[in-house]
Amino acid sequence: MTIAILGGTGPQGRGLALRWARAGVPVAIGSRDAERASATAEELQALLPPSAASIRGMDIRDAVGAADEMVVLAVPYAAHDATLASIRELLQDKILVDIVVPLAEGNPRAVAMPAAGSATEAAQQLLGEAIPVVGALHNVSAATLNHLDHAINCDVLVCGNAMPAKDKVIELINKMDVTAYDCGPASSARCIEAITPILIRLNISKKVPFTHAGIRIWAPDA
Length: 222
Description:
GO cellular component, one term: plasma membrane
Organism: Halopseudomonas bauzanensis
CATH class: Alpha Beta
Strand order of the largest sheet: 3-2-1-4-5-8-9-10
Radius of gyration: 16 Å
CATH topology: Rossmann fold
Mean pLDDT: 96
GO molecular function, one term: oxidoreductase activity, acting on NAD(P)H
Shape: globular
Oligomer: single chain
């Protein structure tokens, strides 16, 4: 099952491509610059063992076409709506996994939510209900994803209006040895996306002894 990662040349897209390819999932990296995407794919492939699945680089529209079902949107928020508008007709019969966080311009320690309420809801509104949008992977550090020698140090909160689509996305995320939780409808993204700037604030603070922290869901003691 080939998945597409749009914005796959960026830090988070690169890390996800590495993690999924290592887990045996073929990846098509999509970028506005096909040559850059191809070069990035070759660079990432060289970091993986021979047993890993393939990573290919191509134009954004070609990457969507190469995806069997899953298309991951990992572009900067400034390009979120325009990217979706440019590929909307290609997303029929596919699932969009929106990992974009609407960070405030010039201030990654705050969000600037769109009128729809969140980036996930904005994507669903723009694409229409016929194309399922699942919000996920908002709170995972790009640095963590790219450090393959370390396990991903957090859980993943997943939301969306279509239960079958959420189940498939959770199954895909689990392939990276990460636990993912169904956190309800797309409106839950208003809370989930807003966690990211809080983590960024903590991670850059001189008052804590860590960076690149994530969040976990802890069960009560038995």
